[in-house]
Amino acid sequence: MVQVFENKTSYNVVGTRPIRHDGIDKVTGRAIYGADVKVPGLIWGEVLRSTEVHARIKSIDTSAAKKMPGVFAVMVHQDLADPGTETTRNGLQDVDREFFNIMAKDKVLYKGHVIAAVAAIDRNTAQEATRLIKVEYERLEPVRNVDEATSPNAPILIEDLIGDHLGENVANTNIATHFRHEFGDVEGGFKLADLIVDREVSLEMVHQGYIEPHNATVIWHEDDKLTVWSSTQGSFGVRDQTAKFVGVSPSQIRVNYSEIGGGFGGKTKVYLSPIAAILSKKSGGKPVKIVMDRPSVFQATGPAPGGKVKVKMGVTNNGKITAAEATIRYEAGAYPGSAVNAGAICIFGCYNIPASRIDGFDIVVNKPKSAAYRAPGSPQAAFAIETVVDEICENKGWDKIQFRLDNAAKKGTRRGDGVLLEKVGFEESLDATRNSSHWNSPLGKPDNGKLRGRGLACGYWMNGGGPSTCDLMLSDDGTVMMNEGSADIGGTRASIAMQAAEVLGLAAEDIKPSIPDTDSIGFTGTTGGSRTTFATGYAAYLAAQSMVKELKTRASILWEIDETDIEFSNGVFRSTKESELKLSIKELAEKLGVTGAPVSTTSSVNMAAGGNGYAVHICDLEIDPETGKTDVVRYTAIQDVGTAIHPSYAEGQIQGGVVQGIGWALNEEYFINDDGSMANYSFLDYRMPTSLDLPMIETIMVEVPNPNHPYGVRGVGEVPLCPPIAAVGNAINDAIGKRIYEQPIKPGRILDAISKD
Amino acid sequence: MAKVFIPFQLRKFTNGVPEVDVPAATLRELVDELENLYPGIKDRLVKDDKLRPGLSAVVGYVATRQGLRQKLDPDVEVHFVPAVSGG
User: Which of A76, A295, A393, A590 has its CA 20 to 30 A from that of A677?
Assistant: First the structure.
């Protein structure tokens, strides 16, 4: 079973704020990102993307491109290796649809879908050659959203898709999966209710918005081994996915770690490395580099799903929830696999609801295949549930924090999927909210004619676990070299090193973290789901414990005393019988030569759970009634972080999540033309908030230690993205007295709502 | 006795029964016992002696990483839920 720890409340290193180990490399430009990779003999790859949203490919003529001077190779889907079929959840044999997302075979399912690729002497030549490829399409009617996808006679995107509809296999459908979670007497619960609120919200796809575009550089060596560089949240994921689609064993591929300029979940999939690999092979082993441009990033990679979420909730007059129901319909994009499963887990995660029913639908539409985005599926669900809860409180005149406290999830609460919660910190987070300066500050009235409002919303994410590896090597000077397998996307080198330092009684700076290639470290899962500080940190903790054990043995050899007569605390080994015998780790490291071999330890773990995360957000905003423009003027994020290993980086995760969530609420959307194509595929038109748009995001970290981690770590990077859409929406309602159920809540919608008076 | 929560999609095998008490020391024994009670259900949970792809078993409070070898405490709750990943 899962180990349960008695967490301490004070530490030497944990909870301090050392400068990150990779900080100087990052601020001086010395850090190497994927696009910085240069190897001798490098040539460039470029892809041809579909100009159609939904079309059958009648023919592809690559002959002119192949003849162009400077071109080394041209590839189409058939050059990828057939990965074969695998068993799906409904027990059928089906191919991994990423096979067709990486490069289309006989249909294109969104504008920007890759059709062919070219490798050439330079990037311009490669781009020119792609323009010589002739594609003949049979245009088909686009399916632009979940309503169109599920309407009678809707065009079917994937003709051989067999949907799993409540356990029944269904052909000729755009609904890849319909599942249900249900427990308790839902109808009976609604009968007990004095008030039932039933609302549906709609959302557009949004992008993770990472600044660094996707890239890959691959060499297919003459011995059929491959070397890969790629911007990714998981080197092992790139290794395994690339191997699958180019027809080699994962052990034939070595993926080098490069720094990552943002991912937020969008860099957990591969788009380019299988293509660069095949182009390298067809070019006789020349290194091939491909870097996406921004329009391609928007049009062909990882949006979070849009869709519709309906929530019905019943409450009694004394403020208790009696039952709840949800219908979540998410756009998977071109191929199945939206975050609807996670959305269903999270939607009622904040509340203790005696009976609930959740229907989830994963629906394919003619848009890019959706990908993970911080707390995948939960922000959209939170928009619905937190809007309904706010409306209930407003209707009954109840205190919005007290109602949530009266119905708060706690240890033993059953989530919407029926699973029981371990110890969580939602009540403590609500208490901290009630006691916060923000909540206790008057909203005030602006004297500039603007309308001001305050909103509150909550969010839940379960946090991940999984496999991780950490190696430690003691140097003669007493510092410790650390290799760990997790991509560092948020300061995790520091948060992992600090856990080793805490065990060893060293300073964080004495641990020297590196992230080696996939041949040089044990398997480590992708950085995502807020798992890394928790799981890889635990591997570092165990490796450090092993090092202490080994050093005790060495001290016993050195002092010629029994190992059991040695104790270790705060970085110092002491004889329990002879007080003059004591050595710090640094002193002992100098003397190790006479005690045996160098000291190195390793630990690999496979963690079961990351400790549930809860957030409560308060948003104050002002609206210009003339233009509908919204300005967030104050925002506070309260979050149970378990134990903040490095408080600055935990705060940074929270602030970053809030900013992305505010953008999601107010501005961001895939604006879809009538023909189904995306209109706003540049950062100019896809409006993300900048530091000039927002106030400083205030954070309040609540620390309810996770009992399944020795330092009480809970993931912190996902849940801050969950409440903002609803917090902003509830604040807008407070300001203008009208609820807007469509995201983004943009000026036009606000003006429409105001004008309906 | 482990308390098993039957996924809604599989309740056709249990005539709509949502929860079942099953004597089992491991997850494998639990699945076998479910199959004895409700023939056909095992095939929807297990393939090639592993949990089906995309399926996760929650034992107590957390999803097990030990698959069918997971030992079960007396009176523990077991849920079969879709596996999810984060961002």
Answer: A76
Cross-chain CB nearest to A91 (options B44, B71, B79) = B44
| Pair A162, A323: CB distance under 8 Å | no
A422-463+611-757 topology per CATH: Aldehyde Oxidoreductase; domain 4 (3.30.365)
**C-alpha A471, offset from chain centre:** 25
Gap from B27 CA to chain A (nearest CA, Å): 12
Chosen CATH of B2-82 out of 2.40.50.140, 3.40.50.300, 3.10.20.30, 3.30.300.30: 3.10.20.30
Measured between beta carbons, the chain A residues lying within 8 angstroms of B82 are 89, 179, 341
Domain A34-141+210-300 has CATH 2.40.10.270: no
Structure tokens at B12: 């056709």
How is chain B split into domains, by residue range?
2-82
Cis? peptide before A705, omega within 30° of 0: no
Q: CB B54: neighbour CB atoms within 10 A?
A: 16
ipTM of the complex: 0.94
Pairing of strands A697-702, A630-640: parallel
Short-list A268, A271, A264, CA closest to A293: A271
CA distance linking residue A619 with residue A21, whole number of Å: 34
Task: State the DSSP string of A469-504.
Answer: EEEEEE-TTS-EEEEE-S--SSSHHHHHHHHHHHHH
Residue A375 CA to chain centroid, in angstroms? 6
Q: pLDDT tens digits for A148-207?
A: 999 999 999 999 999 999 999 999 999 999 999 999 999 999 999 999 999 999 999 999
Largest CA distance in chain B: 39
Give the Cα separation of A485 and A43 in Å (integer): 29
Q: Which residues of B touch A375 (CB under 8 A)?
A: 86-87
Architecture of domain A466-607: 2-Layer Sandwich (3.30)
